[in-house]
Amino acid sequence: VGRLVERLENMRRNALGRGPSQCLLCGDRFGILGAQKARCVDCRKHVCQKCAIDTFNIKHR
């Protein structure tokens, strides 16, 4: 459990995105040719679907 908490804290600390046009966690741009948006349940910020799945999996292990 400790490793999962540490991983989630690292994701928060290393957030790259700025604003609603980029994923908060990885910095990928959203758009027709870019990543699709999802809203983080915890912080209510936009993340890409890949990061949304990663954070969901961390919380439910």
Automatic annotation (TrEMBL):
Keywords: Metal-binding. It comes from the Eukaryota. Pfam families: FYVE_2. InterPro entries: FYVE_2, Rabphilin/DOC2/Noc2, Znf_FYVE_PHD, Znf_RING/FYVE/PHD. It comes from Ignelater luminosus. One of its GO terms (molecular function) is metal ion binding. Residues 1-55 form the FYVE-type zinc finger domain. Transmembrane segments: none annotated. GO terms for cellular component: presynapse. GO terms for biological process: exocytosis; regulation of calcium ion-dependent exocytosis; spontaneous neurotransmitter secretion. PANTHER family: RABPHILIN, ISOFORM A. This is FYVE-type zinc finger domain-containing protein.
